[in-house]
Amino acid sequence: MKRNTLIKNAKIVNEGIIFEGDILIENNRIKAIDSSISVKSADMTVIDAEGNYVLPGLIDDQVHFREPGLTHKANIESESKAAIAGGITSFIEMPNTKPQTTTIEKLEEKFAIAAKTSYANYSFMFGGTNDNLDEILKVDPKSVAGLKLFLGSSTGNMLVDDPEVLEKIFSSTDIVISVHCEDEATIRKNLEKYTDEYGDDIPMELHPIIRSEEACYLSSSKAIDLAKKTGARLHVFHLSTGKETSLFTNKIPLKDKKITAEVCIHHLWFSDEDYKTKGSRIKWNPAVKTAKDRDKLWEALLDDRIDVLATDHAPHTNEEKNNPYTSAPSGGPLVQHALVALLEAHHKGKISIEKIVEKACHNPAILFDVEKRGYIKEGYFADLVIVDLKSPWTVNKSNILYKCGWSPFEGNTFKSRVTHTFVNGELVYNNFKVLDVKAGQRLTFNR
């Protein structure tokens, strides 16, 4: 029989306010929230939050967990363990696996894997190509997070570069279309220039010059123009330039927006100055760019032109990352350290805890119509995270949970830590220990 849980003495963060109180969990839901709750029951576990903050579990709308087909880098089990250690209780995974998730059959195979192995709640993006519109039209909007289109930096045949097909896709579906925006022609031209000069061993510092501001802005602006033309619901992933932020608005509430944007932790933390020390460890697509771009991204996040915080968690092995520029893959692991990095920004006065919760918990739930998650409310699923803001720890090999075994934050000391994570009412993580409880459920969508 499952024990119920009472969380006492918490600073509860929800919908822009922080209040002290208790949370009662029964089965997998939040039963009650009050200033003081007393329950005498033999099947009750009481956890004293000791005045620490309780947040809704984070919803990460963009991860690459590499299963199936690329499991030497990661898999759903290993990366979902890292996610719950980092306070992420729900994830939306991308379709560029092997095989790619571009048919309903392959999509359901991934759901079957996650049902057996995931520690966190899960959903998957369905992948669009130049020739799978018939499959796209079969997607059930109540049970699938959305559609992912690569308008640049694709793998396999997932680059959607036929304008007629793109317009048909935008015109044919009401579900959220999430896009990776980088103009391939611009990138190819820049890469050719530097390959001629350096061969394969291009200095890593040139990555943001090759995958330039121009490439990002050109692609993002075209996608937005097409969304406006067709009325599509468009979400632009991982903005990396200040210039792109001008394409988005804060004049209307998120629930009414047709065009939204996301920013990832690495574009808010690193800058091009870090390539000298981090090298390929911070090679992402789109590229980490200038400190000025980083400042503009923070500005747009805080004034609500950017709607969502995410990770774009995309692990590769050390051996793969150690290759020269042209063969070192882009991407890095982030789910375990995203929340503590955001809390570090809070300590530095960049962002409030309430704003972190808005952007990483509430807004993904609004944007993707996630059912009964992303908030601390009675009747909602009990996806909860307790964080201690005064408990420093240092990232090192011994506490990294990613299957790839490394982190761009190695050696970094964070002031805050996740002490407890609950998924669907079950304690799944407790003070650096992942418990053997696979409580993740398939996300559903209120559409």
Automatic annotation (TrEMBL):
Keyword vocabulary terms for this entry: Hydrolase, Metal-binding
EC number in record: 3.5.2.3
Cofactors: Zn(2+)
Molecular function GO labels: dihydroorotase activity
Family as reported in the entry's similarity comment: Belongs to the metallo-dependent hydrolases superfamily. DHOase family. Class I DHOase subfamily.
The protein's role, per its UniProt record: Catalyzes the reversible cyclization of carbamoyl aspartate to dihydroorotate.
Protein name: Dihydroorotase
Organism name: Winogradskyella vincentii
Higher taxonomy: Bacteria, Pseudomonadati, Bacteroidota, Flavobacteriia, Flavobacteriales
